[in-house]
Write a structure and sequence with these properties.
With about 130 residues, this protein is mainly alpha-helical. It has helices at about 5-15, 15-25, 35-40, 45-55, 65-85, 90-100, 110, and strands spanning about 1-5, 30-35, 60-65, 105, 120.
Length: about 130
Amino acid sequence: MELLDTDVLIDIQRNHPPALQWFSSLASQPSVPGYVVMELIQNAPNAKRVADALKLVASLKIVWPTGADSNRALAEFATYHLSHGLGLIDALIGSTAVGLGATLFTFNAKHYRVILSLQIQQPYVR
C-alpha cells in the first residue's frame, strides 16, 4: 500500500511536472491519511482552495489510524517530541503508515526518521 504525504499532494496540486508524471505512472491508486487531508485544508487561504484540496483527494481512499496506531503515535510522540522535534500530526501520519504496512511517499524524511518500522520513499526528484 502507498500513502501520500502533504508535500507530495501539494506538488500535484501545483501541477509540478515530475509529481504529475510520477502520480500518473502509479500502478494502483494510493491512499491518503485523513490528517494529510486536514493539513491541506489548514493550509488553504480561502474557501476555493479548500474546495480544490477536497477535489484533489476525492478519488483517493482516505485512511485513519486505528486505536493501536494512535497508542503507538502517542508513545513515539512522548518519546521523541522534545529530543527530535517529532510533530503531533507527523506522529499520527507515520503511525498510520506503520499500522497499514504502507510506504509513505514524502520529501520530509527528517520529520519521520524516529518512527520505528516506518517505510518512507522519495517519489520523484524535485
